[in-house]
Amino acid sequence: MGAVARAGACVPDEASAGLTVDGGAGSGSAPAGARLSGAPAEGAGRARGGDLPDWLVDPPRYDPPRDRDAFVARSALSIASVLGRFRLDDGRPSPLSPSAPAKLILGLACILLTSLSRNYFFVLVMLALVLVRACLLPSRKLARVASVAGAAAALTALVMLPAILLGQSHSALLVGTKVLVSVSIAMIVALTTPFNEITGALRAFRVPNLFILTIDMALKNIVSLGRIALEVLTSLRLRSVGRNRDKGASIGGTAGVVLLKSKEAAEVTYASMECRGFEGEYVSGGRGQWRAHDAAWAAALAALVALFVYLQSLV
Question: Residue 141 is part of which domain span?
Answer without folding.
Answer: 95-193+287-313
